[in-house]
Amino acid sequence: MQEWIDEELxxxxxxxxxLNKRFAILLDRLSAKPNVSIPAACKGxxxxxxxxxxxxNGEVSSPKLLAPHADATSRRIAEHNVVLIAQDTTELExxxxxxxxxxxxxGEDHVGAYAHICLALTPDRVxxxxxxxxIWTRDPDSFRKRKECSKKPIEEKESFRWLEGYRTSSELAxxxxxxxxxxxxxxxxxIYECFDEAVGDEVPLQGESEISNARSRRADWIVRxxxxxxxxxxxxQKLYEVLGQADTxxxxxxxxxxxxxxxxxxxRKQSRKARQAEVTIRAACVKLQPPPRRGPSxxxxxxxxVNAVLVxxxxxxxxxxxxxxxxxxxxxxxxxxxxxxxxxxxxCRWEIEIFFRTLKSGCQVEELQLETSERMVACMSVxxxxxxxxxxxxxxxxxxxxxxxxxxxxxxEWRSVYHxxxxxxPPKTAPxxxxxxxxxxxxxxxxxxxxxxxxxxxxxxxxxxxRDFAQAWITFGPGKPTYV
Length: 484
Hints:
Blueprint: H1 3-8, H2 17-32, H3 38-41, H4 44-56, H5 62-77, E1 82-93, E2 103-104, E3 111-121, E4 127-136, H6 140-144, H7 160-175, E5 180-185, H8 192-199, H9 208-215, E6 220-224, H10 239-244, E7 248-256, E8 275-288, E9 304-312, E10 324-329, H11 336-347, H12 350-362, H13 373-399, H14 411-422, H15 433-443, H16 456-476
């Protein structure tokens, strides 16, 4: 059993000690071999049958499985001055020729589930863990009537998950009073009810002193806007017009990554080439007007003050879509460094996209064949912890390369990898974590070229090979057991 698992599952309660023990064994097996099937990860037929029975048990649910990991994450959060909670949703496609598992996705020809994840990160992008996971399947009958959704209160919509994610962030802010918790949402989280929830006792924003009383143990927040909302002005202006007339905070050059076109024709999903873009950054405090809400008992929404930051490419190359970000927040924007901090924090949200890639490509969760949605969701919950562990080792090695690697790796792990990669006996003292991560990633195909860094794919393959070598080290290496 890997040493980190005991601490991660401290306080697990599935209602039966045997289930608790089986959970620990499964987490050990799946994290040691994240990208293979359950039978390949387990040790023999007996363990494989026990694994399938575990996921079929009615007492095994996603909230119970993630509860000890969320508690461990909360303890890690309390060790930092600032923690970011990135929330986002991803599709899990389980369309099979031989079986139908889950509900409709974008259309009824594709079935599966949706997962809305809240991932805790440091501003250095080191993932601390999953603090909330909502995994659900759509009912086909309700999906066919989705046009009626606009008449429902937010509590009955799928978009309610964004509000619940913010509430979870605020709970963490209360549990960790010495940590500033900032909730990050992309444009799908541009929901007025979330703003109304977050402002508390409404006061004008902009500077540090003005927002301190508004927090009152609520989490801070940053949302990328997707709607050009009405603002409280005599001219009847809208958000983008007001920010376009605001004073320039600074100008900057940003690296634009390459992107392939996706599905619809929205500007955010058009193809683009990698290039450098000169952008202008503007910021202002605005008062948003609440949108109308229909339904039998619509929620009464207030006008709210928010701080807004607009990052815009004024003169894009001909034929290219200009870069444009509108960030809404309650964080201060009263000087250039504060505005830069808002942008830097939001950029950390990209780590949850890498987390989803690790979950799907590294842990192969879309290839699971467990026959029912309930089993798939339970298994998914275990793989959320596995995906976090892969990213945690990778990013900790990037941000804290100088610490000894035995802080997070077992002796059998780093010693066996060192012996294999370096071709000589390991030293008495553990090498640095940065050196160890490079060696592990090299087992997954990382070439250690100049100005290159290990990625998650090399890491999850390297971890799998490392665990095999560690077991061989224990069995056949120095200090091996003597059998009579």
